[in-house]
């Protein structure tokens, strides 16, 4: 038993206030019980008196009971007040506790942030960007070298292809006796086996559209317009 | 099994020999042991804290077999409890005995546990609230003897877990528990 200064929880004025309220609550509860008992007793007394046919005394007992009941209502209201205050105090103290811990948290964040200097961070980001830019440059230079070599190859290939295509398009002309424009259109798709079919088609082509082959432009337009008028004539009777 | 106020009495309660103080040492020791346990269990279940030797304690007599413990026998059994530390004489003449079916230390631990479980740390309670308030209803603390309670609280105070104080003169004694 050596330690005299044991850490006891400190008693604040708030604690004393709470104690007062709680004591009061207890006293009021006890008072309520007493009043309940008195009311019950008076009720019983009134019953007995009525049985004894002593109406005036019975009425008196009932009146007494009434006053006690009024007092009980009063006590009930006081008790609710006391409870309310106790609840309010508790709420207020909890709010204070929350506020205190939020404040402590805030201080902690500030302390940690103060260790990181904003300038240092900026410098760090700049250095990183520089390094990246340098790397990109190196890549570009290396890349240039490579594409220069590739470009020559690509150009060569391109010229080859071009010459191939032009070679392909030339043989089409001597293959048929049909007007060159149409034949030229058709022949790239032609294969030697299908040569007969192509000729048939050409005959059909020749048979039907006689109009487009003639060169004079006004003639074609005339034909088209006559066709159109014929159609018009045909159409007219319909709506009527 | 017989019942006494909702408490199931053990078999030996119906054997007359157990109500007379046995002369033979071995049987005496067994008898004392059985009675000690019975007293503690009974008091715990009925929340009895004080036994008055002169009074008619229902446990000390069995009307069915028409036997009851003599004054001497009662004193022997209760003294045995005191020797074991489970009881205390309240006065020199051994008229009243305080039964500690929970030792004071155990009571203190119980109170501390109760405070922790229900979040009463850093809050104030009146002593009467602990004895008979709503918060303690259903726990062992309900109906605890004020003397035992105060001693347990003082023990907690020594350890720094609680502080007993009084506000104004009209106030009840209050206890503040620390976290």
UniProtKB/TrEMBL annotation, chain A:
Coiled-coil annotated residue ranges, if any: 14-41
Top-level taxonomic group: Eukaryota
GO cellular component: ESCRT III complex; multivesicular body
Single biological process term from Gene Ontology: late endosome to vacuole transport via multivesicular body sorting pathway
Signal peptide start and end residues: none
InterPro entries hit by this protein: Snf7_fam
A UniProt-annotated Pfam family: Snf7
Key words, A-Z: Coiled coil, Endosome, Membrane, Protein transport, Transport
Biased composition (Low complexity): 208-218
Subcellular location: Endosome membrane
Region (Disordered): 172-240
Membership in a protein family: Belongs to the SNF7 family.
PANTHER family reported for this sequence: CHARGED MULTIVESICULAR BODY PROTEIN, CHARGED MULTIVESICULAR BODY PROTEIN 6
Protein name according to UniProt: Vacuolar protein sorting-associated protein 20 homolog 2-like
Gene field: LOC120113316
From TrEMBL, chain B:
An annotated GO BP: macroautophagy
Keywords: Protein transport, Transport
GO cellular component assignments: ESCRT II complex
InterPro entries documented for this protein: ESCRT-II_cplx_Vps25-sub, ESCRT-II_cplx_Vps25-sub_N, WH-like_DNA-bd_sf, WH_DNA-bd_sf
Listed Pfam families: ESCRT-II
GO molecular function, one term: structural molecule activity
Family named by the database record: Belongs to the VPS25 family.
Name listed for the protein in its UniProt record: ESCRT-II complex subunit VPS25
Encoding gene per record: LOC103713480
């Amino acid at each position: 038993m050596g330690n005299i200064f044991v850490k006891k929880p400190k008693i604040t004025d708030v604690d004393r206030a709470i104690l007062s309220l709680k004591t009061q609550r207890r006293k009021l509860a006890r008072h309520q019980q007493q009043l309940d008992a008195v009311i019950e007793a008076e009720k019983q007394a009134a019953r007995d008196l009525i049985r004894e046919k002593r109406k005036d005394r019975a009425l008196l007992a009932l009146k007494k009971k009434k006053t006690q009941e009024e007092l009980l209502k009063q006590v009930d209201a006081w008790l609710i007040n006391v409870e309310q205050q106790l609840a309010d105090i508790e709420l207020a103290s909890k709010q204070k506790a929350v506020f205190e811990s939020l404040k402590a948290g805030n201080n902690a964040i500030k302390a940690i942030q103060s260790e990181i200097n904003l300038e240092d961070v900026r410098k760090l980001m700049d250095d990183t960007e520089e390094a990246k830019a340098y790397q990109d440059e190196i890549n570009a230079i290396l890349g240039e070298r490579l594409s220069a070599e590739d470009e020559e190859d690509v150009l060569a290939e391109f010229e080859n292809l071009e010459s191939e295509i032009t070679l392909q398009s030339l043989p089409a002309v001597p293959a048929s006796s049909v007007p060159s424009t149409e034949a030229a259109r058709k022949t790239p798709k032609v294969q030697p086996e299908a040569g007969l079919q192509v000729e048939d088609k050409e005959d059909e082509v020749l048979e039907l559209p006689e109009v487009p082959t003639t060169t004079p432009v006004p003639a074609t337009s005339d034909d088209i317009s006559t066709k159109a008028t014929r159609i018009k004539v045909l159409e007219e009777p319909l709506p009527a | 099994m017989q019942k006494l106020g909702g408490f199931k009495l053990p078999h030996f309660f119906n054997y007359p020999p157990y109500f007379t103080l046995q002369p033979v040492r071995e049987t005496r020791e067994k008898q004392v042991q059985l009675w000690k346990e019975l007293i503690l269990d009974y008091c715990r279940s009925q929340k009895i804290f004080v036994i008055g030797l002169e009074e008619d304690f229902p446990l000390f007599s069995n009307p069915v077999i028409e036997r009851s413990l003599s004054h001497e026998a009662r004193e022997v059994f209760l003294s045995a409890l005191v020797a074991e530390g489970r009881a205390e004489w309240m006065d020199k003449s051994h008229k009243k005995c305080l039964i500690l079916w929970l030792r004071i230390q155990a009571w203190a631990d119980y109170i501390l546990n109760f405070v922790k479980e229900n979040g009463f740390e850093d809050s104030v309670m009146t002593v009467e609230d602990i004895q008979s308030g709503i918060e303690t209803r259903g726990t062992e603390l309900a109906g605890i003897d004020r003397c035992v309670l105060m001693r347990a609280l003082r023990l907690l105070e020594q350890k720094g877990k609680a502080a007993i104080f009084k506000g104004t003169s009209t106030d009840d004694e209050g206890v503040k528990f620390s976290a």
